[in-house]
Design goal:
The structure holds two protein chains of two kinds. Chain A is mainly alpha-helical. Chain A is built from four helices and no strands. Chain A has one domain: Non-ribosomal Peptide Synthetase Peptidyl Carrier Protein, Chain A (Orthogonal Bundle). The chains are: A mainly alpha, B alpha/beta.
């Protein structure tokens, strides 16, 4: 899966318009990135990438790129 | 001899004192007894002189619980409650080995937290398999003639989530509401057979589930603060829930059936 496809997956999960996110997008600037979005991210990472996220790891995410790094592991 | 104000000799009154929850001679199956509420319940019931049959999917965990029980004559088994077609055989086997049951506690469950958009059918089914279908099938099998003694009492571990709505809890709440609803009906249907069945509805309890909740949201988070303000007696301890189960599974609760007992630190009343 390409990074662009992974970003598209995030956009779909968070119900954002296509093209809204880039790897450099700051999560703090995304209004939709609330507690429910984080919960959706936890499910997505587990289901699609086999990655178990903890609260501490999520707190450490600053950009979309930080999430992509874990997806690429 | 001291004579009390009632005129009854004190010595006689002291010897008449009794333990309200005495489970001596009662054989009780506890499913989900490898950790958390199920484990604490099993230990508590053993302290009240019950003979326990433990079952859980965590084989090491349930064997560990076995070592912590009081008294002897207990047993532990591996059981995957989601394998519904194997539950008949399991119940048959333990009845054959240990005798008919006097009590059954169902404490197996998945604490699924999932936004609606992520709640695909297979995830819904997976949670229902463990939280409700497993419970329902176990009850169905145990309530067959020859598998229970007169006065059988059953307690399911439900949740306050069945009584309140919350984000990301649609699946979990549904399974617990299903349990409560089934119990109301089964209680009426089985009354003629002398079987009583109830659920307890814990609020957030200090188990691995709560640890994960705090890990996810943070102890200082608004989410956790909101939770602890609602259940104003604090976070429940597993002993709190075990105590309620012990009462409901005992002959002392003879006249209670079909109910969901909140054990919630005030949560559902505010």
């Amino acid at each position: 899966m390409t990074d662009q496809e992974k970003i598209a997956m995030l956009e779909e999960t968070w119900e954002l318009d296509e093209g809204t996110l880039t790897a450099d997008s700051a999560l703090a600037d995304i209004d939709e990135y609330d507690s429910m979005a984080k919960l959706s991210l936890i499910v997505l990472m587990d289901d699609e990438f086999g990655v178990k996220l903890t609260g501490e790891v999520i707190k450490g995410f600053e950009t979309v790129g930080d999430i992509l790094k874990l997806m690429n592991k | 001899m001291i004579i009390s104000l009632t005129g009854i000799p004190m010595m006689r009154r002291w010897t008449e004192m009794k333990n309200l929850i005495d489970l001596s001679g009662r054989r009780i199956l506890v499913v989900g007894s490898s950790s958390g509420i199920g484990k604490r319940t099993a230990i508590t019931l053993s302290e009240l002189n019950a003979k326990l049959v433990l079952a859980a999917i965590d084989e090491d965990g349930v064997k560990q619980t076995l070592t912590e029980l009081f008294g002897d004559g207990h047993a532990a088994y591996y059981l995957d409650v989601s394998k519904l077609d194997e539950l008949d055989g399991f119940v048959g086997e333990i009845v054959e080995k240990h005798g008919a049951l006097d009590g059954f506690v169902y404490s197996a469950g998945l604490g699924t937290a999932m936004p609606l958009a992520m709640s695909k059918p297979e995830k819904v089914l997976n949670t229902f398999n463990v939280n409700f279908f497993g419970f329902f099938e176990m009850v169905r099998q145990i309530c067959r003639k020859g598998r229970y003694n007169p006065g059988l009492r059953i307690v399911g571990v439900s949740s306050c989530a069945s009584l309140r709505g919350d984000k990301s809890k649609a699946i979990y709440s549904s399974t617990k509401s299903a349990m409560d609803s089934a119990v109301r009906c089964i209680a009426k249907e089985m009354a003629d057979k002398g079987i009583c069945i109830n659920t307890v509805a814990p609020a957030m309890t200090a188990t691995e589930l709560y640890n994960k909740f705090v890990e996810k949201y943070g102890e200082d988070s608004n989410t956790n603060r909101e939770l602890t303000s609602r259940q104003y007696l604090g976070i429940a301890q597993t002993q709190d829930i075990a105590n309620a189960i012990a009462f409901l599974i005992s002959p002392a609760a003879r006249f209670i059936t079909g109910i969901t007992l909140p054990v919630d630190g005030g949560l559902t009343t505010c």
